[in-house]
Amino acid sequence: MDGKAGSADVEVSGSAVEPTGAAGILRVLRVSLHVGFAVLLLVAVVRLPGAGIHGNGPLTLATAMILAAVYVAGTVLEKRHAQDPSRFDPAPFAACWLAAACLLWLLLIWSSADFVWLAFPLFFLQLHVLPRRLALPAIVLSTVLVIVALWFHNRGTADAALQLPMVLGPAFGAAFAVVTGLAYRALYREAEHQRRAAEELRRTRAELARSQHDAGTLAERARLAREIHDTLAQGLSSIVLMGRSAEKALDDGDTVTARDRLRTVQETASANLAEARNFVRGLQSPALEESSLVNSLRRLCERTETEAAAHGTGLRCRFDLEGTPLELPNPYRTTLLRAAQASLANVWVHAKASTAVVTLSFLGSEVAMDIYDDGVGFDPAGVARRRPGGSGYGLKSLRERVAALAGRMDIESAPGEGTVVAIRLPLAPAAAGTGHPDGRLDKEQQQ
Q1: Domain of 314?
Q2: Do 86 and 188 share a structural domain?
Q3: Separation between Cα atoms, residue 113 and residue 108, nearest integer Å
Q4: 133 touches 5 (CB < 8 A)
């Protein structure tokens, strides 16, 4: 039983944990210790018939077998626990195990001097299992016992020159064992530190992966919410209003107006279908694929007037362009178009305005868009509190879109004083210096 010696230092490679460095050295030392103990015990047992112990031979052999069994049992239990911490942990009984092994060794060295050399592997076990304040006295005591046993078994020898090696050999062996054992302890502590660090790194990586997955899920949900609100929800709302207007026109016998409203319903439904297909593919607005941003905004203003008229609102919507249109990246064009769609939808549904103006300005280092209406206005601070039924989400999602492009969105409004939604998006130096007559990228540049 090696106490904690089954632990290894590790490094994390992907999701696997592999032994490296100090763990390899520790493994070699442990294997050498076990092999050394087994070889020394086997040699002593083989020499028993010639050791001159006669009648005590069977008892000595039985004691040696018991020592071997105790040693193997302790090391096997420790190894199994190191491989699977849920198994029985023998560490609390390590001192008792060592005491039993040392007691059996004492009985053996009393029978034969060949067993004294087992002291050297026992020195390492004492250093590893016991605290240093107990291990060093135990090693000194074991060394003295080795010297006494050698003297006892060689006391009838006439050669006095044997006395000095009997003292120096065990003493130097004990000193070497102490130095090597302390080095082993240092390696073991380093291995334990690296193992814990690797486990912590693995846990951190797993937590990071989970947090990144959760963040990605939340970001995708936010993107889906923005796209659904700014495209499908707006289109379906328009279809509902146009359908009601067509129904009213039919009730009044005005088939021309009803036909015109139904045509608008078909066009809006077709546009919504195209939006949904592109939405699934994660592409930009189909309106921007077929036309420029400037033309898309101009048609949006015309469609807003038509939808407002169907709703019974006399809204005049105008588009103004200031400066020379520049080549804009697709995310910029999509964000500006979605901003205009959401803002104008709020104008003719909530603002009760008579005039709305969408102004797109290219100001050199930035592109700006202002949506103005002369409606009833509102308190911008109150919009931050989400209203029931999902309304009030448009401005929140619009702010998120603009912030994702490092832009800025300001809302100026007050009850009874109209509203201005102002959006500013910074332009890269390359884009700021290149113009295009309609604000659309060439096909080669879009790709």
Answers
A1: 292-447
A2: yes
A3: 8
A4: no
